[in-house]
Protein 1
Amino acid sequence: MTELRTPRLLLRPPRPDDAPCYALGIGEFAVARWLTHLPWPYTLSMASDWLRQAPENCPEQCLFIIDLPGKGLIGCISLIGELGFWIARPHWGRGYLSEAAIALLDWHFAGCGRDAVTCSAQHDNRPSLRVQAKLGFREQGREMRFSQALQHNVPHVVTSLARSQWLAREGRQCA
C-alpha cells in the first residue's frame, strides 16, 4: 500500500472507516459546488461506495486521502483521468493542497512515462486555478460541463502540466 509523506501530511489509500469524514467534508455545499461530477447532496453510502471502488494506487492512477496527523482526513487528491482534489472547508487557505499535489506529481512523474497531466476547474474557482498555476499547469482550453450541485452547465478551464515542465522545476529529476 503506497503512502506518500510531506512535511505536514500523510497521503494514504482510503479505508472503509474514512467514509463518514469523507462524506462530511465533500458533502458540504461550499466544497461540493466546485466538484462538477459530484452528486449532491452527497451521502454516507455514496462515500462508502466511492472509497470501496478506489483504484489500487499506482503512478498511472490513484486516489489518496489527505490525512493531517492528529486531525485525520482533511481532503482527497486523485489522478483518475485528470488530477482532482478537494479540501474540507475548515482547512482552506493553509497550503495543504499544494503540498499534497507536489508529492503526488513527484511520485507520478517518477513512476510513470506519461507526458502530461491534465486538470480542470470551474472558471470562477480562483483558489483551484491558483493552485494549478502555482504547480505549473497552463490553460489548454475551455469547455462546458454539467454541475450536479448547481444543476446547470458551467464553464470549465482545462489545464495541462507537461512532464518536462514539472521535472525542470527546482531541478527535479526522474528516477
Protein 2
Amino acid sequence: MSIHKIFTINPGSTSTKIALFEGKKTVYSKNVSHDAAYLAKFDSISSQLPYRKEMIEGLLREDGIDLNGVDAFVGRGGGLLAMEGGTYEIDELVLEHSSKGANGVQHPAMLGPQIANEFAAIYKAKAYVVNPPDVDELQDLARMTGIKGVYRIIHLHALNLKETAIRHAESMGRKYDECNFIVCHIGGGISISAHRNGKMVDGYDIVGGEGPMAPTRCGSVAIADLLNYCKGKDLKEVKQLCTKSGGFVSHMGISDAIELTERAKQGDKYAEVLWNTMIYQIEKCIGSMATVLHGKVDGILLSGGMVYSDDLVMQIKETCNWIAPVTAYPGEFEMEAMAAGAIRVLDGIEEAKKYKGISCFQGFEFEQHS
C-alpha cells in the first residue's frame, strides 16, 4: 500500500490545530493562534471561515509547507446530527449542517468540515470527517428516560475515545471490534463510555450535563436541586453550567487542574475536596459502565490532559483495578485519529460513509403504533 499524505484541521475556541501526516508519521504540526477579541467580532462561528483559512495559509507559507500531493483533508466534525461512528465524506449536506449547527450546539469544531472542504477543492483531494462529537451508537436500553418522548442522546469526545480504544486493542494483538473497553477522556470535559465490539454502546451526554463534574462542567445534578437553583436566573446563564461555568469554575473561579491541585498541596481544603470529588465521580461512572458491559471488560483506558496527573491515575487504579486493568494514555490522539480514519478508507480497510442528515435514532417502532 502507498503512503498517503493527510492534512488534518482541528478548530478550537482560540486556535486551530493543523498537522500533516505521511502515513501515520507526523511530518508537520502547528497550533494557529487566534486573538479572542478579534474572533468576538464575528457574528457567528461559521463566519470565521475565511479568517481562519487565511491564517492557516499564512502559516503554511511562512513555514514553507506545500500541500500539493495531499490525498485527503480531514476536519474535526461538529454541528451534525447523531450518527454512527466512522469516516464520512464531506458533501453538501455535511457542509450545510456543520455551517448552521444542525444539532443546536455551537462549537468551533463546526468549522472543521468547512475548512477541510475549502482545501480539498484547491488541491483536488478527498475531504472527510472522522468520528465527530455527534457519534451516537447507544444500545436501545440506554435510550429511554422516565419522561415520555424524552430520549437520551450523547455528545462525547468520540474521536479520541475510539482512537484510544483502537490503539489499545492493537497493543493487545486484537481488533477494536473484538474487545470490550471502558474508555475515559479526562480533560476540560470528561467523557466516560462503554465500548462493546467496536460500538460505543453507552456514555454520558456531557453537553447536556450528564456524568462527572469537570473543570468547566457541572456534571449530573438532581433535577429538583437544579430547579431551585434556577429561580431568578437567566436560563442561558444556567445552561452554561453544562459546558462553561460549572465544575471548578463554579466553585473556585478557575478551570486549570494544575492550579487546583497546587492549591490543594498548599493546604487549601476546598481545593482538595473538589479535586477528590471529581475523581470519585469519575470512578462511579466507570463502575456504571462496567455493569453495561456485564463485567466483561478487557481494559479501562484513560486519556486526556488530566491523565498527566499521577495522583488522578493512582486513585482510579486503586478504585477500579478490580474491574479490569487500568491503562493511562496521557494527552490525546485527535490529530492522529483523523489521519488514521482517512488512511483506513484510502487503503480500502473501511468504506467511507455518507451522512444521512437525520438523527440515527428516531424513536422506538413500538411507540409509533401505541
